[in-house]
Amino acid sequence: MSSPAAATPPVARSVWLVVALGFGAIVFEGYDLIVYGSVVPALLAHPGWSMSAGQAGAIGSYALLGMFLGAPASGWLTDRFGRRRLFIGLLVWFSVMMVLVALAPTPGLLGLFRFLAGLGFGGIPPTAIALVVELAPAGRKLYYNSVMLSGFPVGGVVAAVASITLLGPIGFRGLFALGAVPLVTLVPLAWWVLPESARLASAGRPAESGRIRELVRGRMAVATVLFAIANFCGFLLVFGLNTWLPQLMRGAGYDLGSALTFLLLLNIGSVVGGLAGAAVSDRFGGRVVATTLFVLAAAAMLLLTSPHSPTLTSVLVFVAGAMVVGSQSVLWGYVAMHYDTAARATALGVTSGIGRLGAAAGPAIGGLLVASGVGLAGNVLVFAAAAVVGGVSSVLVPRRVAATSMSAAIQQPESDPVP
């Protein structure tokens, strides 16, 4: 039985429908992942569990390890079976898993269900990005993409606000349970209105076209490796900071309320950075904007290594959030524009899937550093180094063909780049 969305609506309406639904899904992805950092102090204090900082960091990484597997698998599946079907299935999967996370009776099961939820989280961005890039008009592709991806830091803002206001009344289980809301909101809407990509249908299956070989051949192989490294660094920054910033700020002398406020500022900055990056990406291209944001993120974090007034620290946290998540949002669009339709979601899945190892490494590294007594300065030095590596990787990505630059590709009508 086909849904009312089976017939493709007008292009402009289709783009905004996909952006809105993708934004909503990514808001909940961001919420579900970032809320964990907000509740780490509560988990460490939970009677009967006796969790150490190292254990909390490891459990924080389990969902991200699931994303490492889910992202490339979903990219492969959506290039073969369609964006719409997989998008809806992933929403159902991670919503159900979040119910189980909220009910987990032991730390071990908490980690297991977060890992399983991560399989769904990892697949949402590659699927949604591919659909947006294929529906958006030329010259606006990175803009629409970045607007949609700004849902991740919005989810972080929601997680921070919910933690500040609801952690006491409903506890960490209640906060986890809120992550299942898409099951009764976004899933019915997506079933009703989400279109399929007509461009994917006309491109044929990549297994038949042979274009997947682009990812591991010649200049494209180099690009794929560099994109994976840049994604690794970007995810390490996003998840390392979001998981451990509240605890690091408590170690620096702030109370829990103030520490959670810094997390809120980090994610408000992330929203601003993602939208600002979107505003200039279609004009200057992903290479320039992603590289610049990585470099500015490193500078902001290096400044955090010295003691400052609470006001200046707040400003630096805000700027760091803007640059870190802004660079990640732009980077995803940069990858999407670099590959043709038949291989696009697979390329996004592979590079972001490998990058999810960085997402898993960020909380684990932060936990080890906290457990070893390294404070705020030591942690942000590690994160600043990762930002530098991400910037270098972004700028070194070889252009698709000698005659076609990224900015030209953005301005041209959407025909697949030359293989």
Structure, described:
By secondary structure, the protein is mostly helical. Helix content is 80%, strand content 0%. The chain has 16 helices and no strands. Mean pLDDT is 78; it is low at 1-9, 203-210 and 402-419.
Write the layout of secondary structure elements.
Blueprint: H1 11-45, H2 53-81, H3 83-103, H4 107-135, H5 141-149, H6 151-177, H7 186-193, H8 198-203, H9 206-209, H10 218-251, H11 256-284, H12 286-303, H13 310-338, H14 341-371, H15 376-396, H16 406-411
Helix pairs in contact: 1-2, 1-4, 1-5, 1-6, 1-7, 1-10, 2-3, 2-4, 2-14, 3-4, 3-6, 3-7, 4-5, 4-14, 5-11, 5-13, 6-11, 10-11, 10-13, 10-14, 10-15, 11-12, 11-13, 12-13, 12-15, 13-14
Shape: globular
Low-confidence stretches: 1-9, 203-210, 402-419
From the N-terminal CA to the C-terminal CA, the straight-line distance is 37 Å
Order of helices and strands: HHHHHHHHHHHHHHHH
Helical stretch count? 16
Q: Main β-sheet, in a few words?
A: none
Mean pLDDT: 78
Number of E-type strands: 0
Supply the helix-strand structural class: mainly alpha
Proportion of strand residues: under 5%
Share of helical residues? over 70%
In angstroms, what is the radius of gyration?
20 Å
Give me a quick take on this structure.
The chain has 419 residues and is mainly alpha-helical. The protein contains 16 helices and no strands.
Descriptive terms for the model:
419 residues, mainly alpha, 80% helix, 0% strand, globular, disordered N terminus
